[in-house]
Amino acid sequence: MGFQSSSLVFLSVLSMMALLCVAPVQGNGALAHKKVERGFPKDCSNIPRDSPSGVHVIQPAGSPPRVVWCDMDTEGKGWTIVQRNSYNTEITWKESWTTYKYGFGNVQQDYWLGNEYLSLLTRQNTYKVRFVVEDKSNNTRYTEYDIFSVEDEPSGYPLRLGRYSGDGEDYLTTYHSGLGGIHDNMKFSTTDKDQDQTSGNCASSYGG
């Protein structure tokens, strides 16, 4: 993600593998865990709870069907993986605004869901987000925010986050001068559409 400068600075510099997952906040939406009777589920929380983790098709409201990876093993189950970035990825993340809008990569490896679909996904319910970071020694930490949304393209796909929890550092809602300042409430930036608040284009160095 590249809100203000790039939260991938945090993910790529401090980790060997990172997963970005979203799931509805429990208690919001009476149908959140009921079996979908027809069509595709709106997110991974709507697939049967005993389903294995893996590739599934979802269809957020207003979106065409999308192939995603659903994590059915992590606490709470039903996490929709919207980004995976491993230390040895072939993806540079220095993609255009349009490429970030519609997504890229391979859902079984490293990928980005797409800002447009992320916006539509988080518009249909109240979601939380979890960043899972694993290093070379298989040490895993996570950072979670109890509210997560991405607004629409005319607004610049700004990021909105709630309260932090977890055993990892909060690099998104607190200010860090060496890691892009603060990312909460900032617009998305790419190499061809600079919307960050720094003097240069951070996406040219770190990706969107």
Structure write-up:
Helices cover 13% and strands 27% of the residues. It is an alpha+beta fold and 208 residues long. Strands 1, 2, 3, 4, 5, 6, 7, 8, 9 and 10 form a ten-stranded antiparallel beta sheet that branches. Strand 3 and strand 4 (79-86) form a beta hairpin. It is globular, with a radius of gyration of 16 Å.
- Give the biggest sheet: 10 strands, antiparallel
Rg calc: 16 Å
The tally of beta strands, per DSSP, is: 10
Count of alpha and pi helical runs: 4
Structural class: alpha+beta
State which percent range the strand residues make up: 25-35%
CATH class: Alpha Beta
Summarize it.
This protein is 13% helix and 27% strand.
What descriptive keywords fit this protein?
208 residues, alpha+beta, Gamma Fibrinogen, Chain A, domain 1, 10-stranded antiparallel β-sheet, 10 strands, 27% strand, globular, disordered N terminus
What secondary-structure arrangement, pairings included, does this model have?
Layout: H1 8-14, E1 17-24, E2 54-58, E3 66-71, E4 79-86, H2 97-102, E5 104-105, E6 111-112, H3 115-123, E7 127-134, E8 140-150, E9 159-161, E10 164-166, H4 202-206
Antiparallel strand pairs: 1-4, 1-7, 2-3, 3-4, 4-6, 5-6, 7-8, 8-9, 8-10
